[in-house]
């Protein structure tokens, strides 16, 4: 490099530094370009990034920058350039930036009955069919709301008359009930309104999803895969009575299989048992009001949030003060 070229580069650097220091418009553009370069480097490194649009007023008369963190940017490849804004130093110009944001929570474990699906009628119909065959009194759907939650064997025990509630008879009735229920477990059972939209939203933002139920493992997998194909992994039901909720063992095991820490996971359920499970596993306990249990039960058992609509969960997932999942 010749002496003239070297002097030219030094002179150019000095002029640029002067403008960056003294001119707000040029300084804003320079800072934006530096952020742009860092973001591109992060994208090339395949880091987990989310994007949103931020409007910046460049070159205002007051020389200040005003920010508006609304209007999320969902098109990841819509990467801005800033050079052509240098000509508009005296005007207010709206430009699009991209910011790297880390998700507050990276996974969600859902209870099944009363949380993802309304299975009350199929369960109640199967149990009432067994009771009718044995000439025992049947129960209304409202009664079964309080029978559900601790596994189907426990539901059978609660359904039987006190005079016929010995362990041997419970086992016999449980097998009859499972036989009837297995044939009709998705006859009336449907996802709650808004659940599919929520799951699609979470999947699109790379949130890992799992199901953990006190229903038998076989039925949990059958119902979940039938109504929610390709949404959840793993899907865990009851295999060992001593490991059912609120024992946190399976929930913690799920966190390991997802590759996440328990504190990075939200546990969503409709019962006090679900809230206890979340607390025992060091996960965020979130209760839902569209299921089978009242708000008071959820709060008294440790719910940190209570949802009235499935899509309300989105607000809990995102970082504080940032609107990224709309």
Describe the structure.
This protein has three domains: 12-96, no CATH class; 107-118 and 190-317, Rossmann fold (3-Layer(aba) Sandwich); 120-183. With 326 residues, it is α/β, with parallel strands linked by helices. It has helices spanning 3-22, 24-44, 120-133, 141-147, 152-159, 167-183, 195-204, 217-227, 249-258, 272-280, 295-300, 313-317, and strands at 55-58, 67-68, 93-96, 107-110, 117-118, 190-191, 208-216, 235-238, 265-269, 284-288, 305-307. Helix content is 42%, strand content 13%. It contains twelve helices and eleven strands. The model is unreliable at 46-100 and 321-326 (pLDDT under 50). The protein has a six-stranded parallel beta sheet, with helices on both faces. A three-stranded antiparallel beta sheet has the order 2-1-3, with helices on one face. The protein has a two-stranded antiparallel ribbon with strand order 5-6. The two termini are 54 Å apart. A hairpin with an 8-residue loop joins strand 1 and strand 2 (67-68).
Mean pLDDT over the residues: 79
Taken from the alpha-carbon principal axes, the silhouette is elongated
Give the proportion of residues in helices: 40-55%
Distance between the termini: 54 Å
**Major sheet description:** 6 strands, parallel
Broad CATH class of the largest domain: Alpha Beta
Elements, N to C (H/E)? HHEEEEEHHHHEHEHEHEHEHEH
Which class do the helix and strand fractions yield? Answer: alpha/beta
- The low-confidence runs, each spanning 5 or more residues with pLDDT under 50, are 46-100, 321-326
Domain module tally: 3
CATH fold label of the largest domain = Rossmann fold
User: For this structure, what is the CATH homologous superfamily of the largest domain?
Assistant: HAD superfamily/HAD-like
Rg over CA atoms, rounded to whole Å, is 28 Å
Strand fraction: 5-15%
Side-by-side strand order of the widest sheet? 8-7-4-9-10-11
CATH architecture of the largest domain: 3-Layer(aba) Sandwich
Count all strands and give the number.
Answer: 11
Number of helices: 12
